[in-house]
Amino acid sequence: MAYPGYGGEFGNFNIQIPGAGPDVILGGFSGYPAYSDPYSSADDPMYAYFSAVAGQDGEVDAEELQRCLTQSGISGTYSPFSLETCRIMIAMLDRDYTGKMGFNEFKELWAALNAWKQNFMTVDQDRSGTIEHHELREAIALMGYRLSPQTLTTIVQRYSKNGRIFFDDYVACCVKLRALTDFFRKRDHLRQGFVNFVYDDFLQGTMAI
């Protein structure tokens, strides 16, 4: 089956790396952004943000990622990302289960965040800095997800505050949708849309997010 969130209508985007020339582009789709990296890490204009907070192991934990993203200004005029959102960002890309994020994973996250931010701005037509229930549903559809009304209602109830969805909560929603879809997709070998879970496997995959 074609999995939602892996290249829907909003799937194609190009992202300019800050400080890089016009030929250096991050591109892909909101489910799995891809990037072209002709630089070594030291030459990469994004590396300054990362290395300023990374530990001696060259990786960042959730608190360091929060500082890195805040200093980078990627959230723009929106509130900085919460520590909990940064934790699940790391979990989404933590393929070696270290609880930390290396520079390559950071670049992948940066691409996803830019795509999600572009999506948020697209549906926030009144430029209020928040989106309403119907706009969140539109944003999810733009990313290629095809969810039931019941699932959409559950998501809206989970991430809205007083009827509004703030950018940090919206990004947390996007992270979980991507991470859980990937968790499911990797186990659905026949692409039929259903799998059998071992209880412990289910807990490992969902409790981390």
TrEMBL record:
Keywords: Calcium, Cytoplasm, Membrane, Metal-binding, Repeat. Signal peptide: none annotated. One of its GO terms (molecular function) is calcium ion binding. It holds the Pfam family EF-hand_8. It is a peripheral membrane protein. It comes from the Eukaryota. This is Grancalcin isoform X1. The gene is GCA.
